[in-house]
């Protein structure tokens, strides 16, 4: 099938010439910086080559990680692209965000996520997983196409240098596509240089192919008011202001005016200070009322959450003054579609210019005030960006590039020590999660009560204003362990503003704040403390490790299952691109191909369970709790997580299993060394260390200490079982050699080596996911077996 035919069938229109150019560069394996106007179809340009190559059996990437700056953008794009692929499994399109953590390990074919989620995974502490699982997500970067949309929104101090470090470190193994509508030419060239790729901008002929609209812009040297909104409103009216408080007040002022006039108007308010359910409903309303061809009258008052990525269109846009790059994003929500006409009105703001840089605001104001009204053209947009952002952004980018050596060291330290400063490496966190309830102790945190992210300063000033009140203004949780070893919150009063320091979650009293169903959280009291409170969003807590079920499985059965999963992945080409990139860059011979290394590591990962002490604990458990006298060497026993008897028995010292991950890596050293030497490659040390690391850390991302102080004593029959479990993986005889646990190594300190880091991520990700999957499939088999027996 030709690309043009595939594109037309999938997305409903023929690819534009610039989209064809993007396809040519991406299919050639190049990194790309794409600059294209809003509404040009950048998302399709980025994803179509991946889908096409996959369908043609010549994949360019194992998966796409599509990162955006805002959750709302990720959610909207996930919904939009999913509509084009109704078969949920082919391809598998997933989403991973803080409020929708559906794919924490990035296992989908296309994963829509936020830049925060992606970068936190890269530095070693993913927002979507526990610290113990932190080494699973980053392996998804290997062999992936990483798309960064709305690149201009990355912060110069935190996210941008970390992303640039990612590109420099991973570029032999990962393909990057960076997209924006509003980055000055100087910075495009600097990013292209870091990527060692191509920069694509649309030429005049390609711009003519884009949907043609007629948009006029009028500058007003006065602030926007509710009266002006009603004066300028049309069928579909979008109002964008710079702060949440301003959006809330403008909405309430409009309500009052309409009520006084005896009129009604279908309108909504959208910003970050809404509960998740309310925000979702509002976003659904927006996408329906402002979609292409929508006929109903509608008015939306919003903040920056609508600036980028949302596929909506208004007849008129009324906006506060903002920097030029943000303004063009806002303009992109007006007359977005072909042959539409729209009018943009930009209003001045007070001298505080919150939350933007004063210099950028003044430069944008100076440019806009040159003419009161103008018909917008691409040349005008280009001149605006270069006038306002050219020198300013170039200086910021130069400062960022100077940060890269220090940022590289900081990320190296994070990979080694497992203690990344995400507020410095990803995003400066100046917010606190706020619940609203008069009795926080009545809420179960494991059921995820609704909460809102609010700036630290806003909450601090609120508490400061109410210090000394007789009734509590709010509470914070102090976590203590109960008799079951679980952390439970003890809620303590926020008696003064300083109590807020170090808190990430608080509960505010509805006597001093209240939640308005239409405009969200307001820092004003409700009457008698009655109103909308935080509700629990789950009916059951997320399943924890202690609730897992396990089923008896011999060591040989477990290894056989694990190896079968690796072979299944190989047959289906799950890691085809990652394998090819690793082979090419590391010059690996066939005898030690990535697939072979991975399967061999998987076959040895639980060898630490074959010690005499570990096997005795397993066999005692089976004998005492199940009445079974075991003769085989086991990997797992029967255990029902919901059984109180099993949970109590598991706490007894008799059944405590000694650690086996680090210990197993030590036992495996002689075998791993022999495996790494088979190809007679100069990479022997690299291969050996990464396999050792993967086994050492297959249960916790930062394991490094061997708990056993004596010589390992393996159970009877271990050598024969290990020999059988490795059958077919190597040529020649390979024997287990008993070793002392005092063997010292610190290979994890070599994770600053990009090649070692990448290969380690690849091996440990595959190992941990296959280990999990093997248990899930075993549990499913047991469930079906039980149903069959019950049916008989």
UniProtKB/TrEMBL annotation:
Residues 223-382 form the Helicase C-terminal domain. One of its GO terms (cellular component) is cytosol. It comes from the Bacteria. SMART domains: DEXDc, HELICc. InterPro entries: Cas3-like_dom, CRISPR-assoc_Cas3_HD, CRISPR-assoc_Cas3_HD_sf, DEAD/DEAH_box_helicase_dom, DEAD_box_RNA_helicase, Helicase_ATP-bd, Helicase_C-like, Helicase_Cas3_CRISPR-ass_core. Residues 570-773 form the HD Cas3-type domain. GO terms for biological process: defense response to virus. Residues 23-201 form the Helicase ATP-binding domain. One of its GO terms (molecular function) is RNA helicase activity. PROSITE patterns: HD_CAS3, HELICASE_ATP_BIND_1, HELICASE_CTER. Keywords: Antiviral defense, ATP-binding, Helicase, Hydrolase, Metal-binding, Nuclease, Nucleotide-binding. PANTHER family: ATP-DEPENDENT RNA HELICASE RHLE-RELATED, CRISPR-ASSOCIATED NUCLEASE_HELICASE CAS3-RELATED. In the central section; belongs to the CRISPR-associated helicase Cas3 family. This is CRISPR-associated protein Cas3. It comes from Tumebacillus flagellatus. The lineage of its organism: Bacteria, Bacillati, Bacillota, Bacilli, Bacillales.
